[in-house]
Amino acid sequence: MVARYAAAVSSLDARLPPRPTRADTASLAAIREVQAQHAKHLAALKSRLVEPSGSSPSPSPSPSVRVTGGLSAVLSMLEQAEETASARLLSQLDGLPGSLAQLFASVAASEATHVPFLRAAEQAR
Amino acid sequence: MTTPTTPASPASGSGAQSQVMAALQDALAAEQAASYGYGVVGAHLPQGSALQTAAGNDWVVHLKLRDDLAGLIKARGGQPVPAAVAYELPVRVQSPAQAKALAALLEDRVGQAYLSLVALPEEALRSFAAQQLRAAALRAEAWRGSTQAFPGLPGSSVRGG
Known about the structure:
The complex is a heterodimer.
Chain A: H1 2-15, H2 22-48, H3 71-90, H4 98-123
Chain B: H1 14-43, H2 50-75, H3 96-118, H4 123-144
Helix pairs in contact in B: 1-2, 1-3, 3-4
């Protein structure tokens, strides 16, 4: 999700007109706000997950994320990704230690809330 | 919504069962408080407005969850904690904006209670509680108009990187 949002922000930044509308600016701000929350999710998950011994200290390459279309298309793509990510986390709760299950559930809940938040940004345009 | 109906696993010890019961009672208490609080929320929203309708709908959700949790507690041989006659509200409510803030806070507290249930190993309860945390976070987002990175978790307990 972090890579997806970074690609979205980069793509939209590059395509914004010299004088973006207030609605476009607000939508981009909403996307950045959610991007920041995903960065927090990633940091929290990394701090709880134990890396296997012998793993490379260098970060693994980010998956390539292709972002196409205008702001509405990007918002729709992000909303779909949020729904998928939230459902995936909720499906992985069984057998987890309690504190990790709590983190997964909390992140899943946060991701679910990103959908109406992004949708509101889209509808405000 | 799916409410777990499966009884406790025979392998579960009495210590684990008392933890489950305590977490269920906490969730019930949070739902009772939310049920009370939404009455205050609705009373401070414009009569007949969409916001008041939304508060009414959320109130009904909490009444249903309150009853579901009481049923779960009884099914496990427990006695549901009684609701208080009145509750001290976390914020003073004299305006629609304050009513919306109270609704968001009520949802935050309900979410925290469900997150305690998520920590327990019983799969059906964990799944139920995670779904309810998600639902509470969605309602909080609707009232607040913003999202939180870690619904249900105290901010200090999550530190990134």
